[in-house]
Amino acid sequence: MEIKKIILILTLLGAIFAYPLNYKIKYFGIHVADCSISNFNIKFNDYDAKKIIFKVKTKPFFRYLFPVDNNYELILNDNYETLFFSKNTFQPNVKNSIETENREGKVFYKNSDLEIPIDSYNVFSLLYSIMNKEIPLGDFILEKEGMTYTSSVESLDSNIYDFIINDSEYNSNKSIVQNTDIFTWGIFLKKSKRRLIIDSETGLINKCIFKKGIITIKAELDN
User: What's CA 53's distance to the chain center, in Å?
Assistant: First the structure.
């Protein structure tokens, strides 16, 4: 019994000190930005929930060329359904500040009629679910700022997955923002490849690789 208690305590400590996760973002092999991911257990509307915060900033030298300062925050239930989402992003000529609100149990973007489907993922909740070894099976709905896409995750082996967005199947009625930030824009580029490499023991994403033609962007775990 004592051994089990010790193992449980060590596991909990490991989960606490695993965050924040830090990633180096490389463009053509050059370290241009950093991404950190923080994870908190919280109460939201009297229910247990997870708050996840993603922060992306360019390195000091590259701030002179193309400064990026992006903050994304989401709250999820145990089924990775979005209870709250906000983003505040800054880059040259584009600033986004959006937030959701609850209306009679449904999640909408503020000052709009754009609803986030309860059974959908966004990029951040999808990444978080994969890191928790809860990989969605078959097609699923991927939501982005009011637009929805048919998506899937294809397993190449036990540790490598391709994240596929069906470019031809999406609801393009309208978006909550006119121009999105470079991170979101890059992920949703048509005819691009998105690959995730997972650590088989921890379940953490060791590397994300995005390719579009000759352009390659990598996010590598730096913990």
Answer: 9
Q: 23-38 pLDDT, tens per residue?
A: 999 988 999 999 999 9
Half-sphere exposure (Cβ direction) of 218: Cα atoms closer than 13 Å: 11
Letter string b/e over residues 78-89, b meaning 16 or more CB atoms within 10 A of that residue's CB = eebbbbbbbbeb
Biggest alpha carbon–alpha carbon distance for the chain: 60
Please tell me the distance from the alpha carbon of residue 31 to that of residue 36, in angstroms, as a whole number: 14
Instruction: Sort residue 93 into left (φ over 0), alpha (ψ -120 to 50) or beta.
Output: left
CB atoms within 10 A of CB 122: 23
**For residue 13, what pLDDT is reported?**
35
**DSSP letter assigned to residue 93:** T
Q: Is the peptide bond before 20 cis (omega within 30 degrees of 0)?
A: yes
| Long-range contacts of the stretch 195-198 (C-beta < 8 A, 24+) | 195/160, 195/161, 195/162, 195/163, 196/127, 196/130, 196/160, 196/161, 196/162, 196/163, 197/159, 197/160, 198/130, 198/131, 198/159, 198/160, 198/161
Residues 6+ apart with CB under 8 A from 189: 212
The predicted structure's pLDDT at residue 90: 94
Question: Using CA atoms in the order 38, 131, 165, 176, what is the torsion angle rounded to 10 degrees?
Answer: -20
Tokens of 147: 């637009």
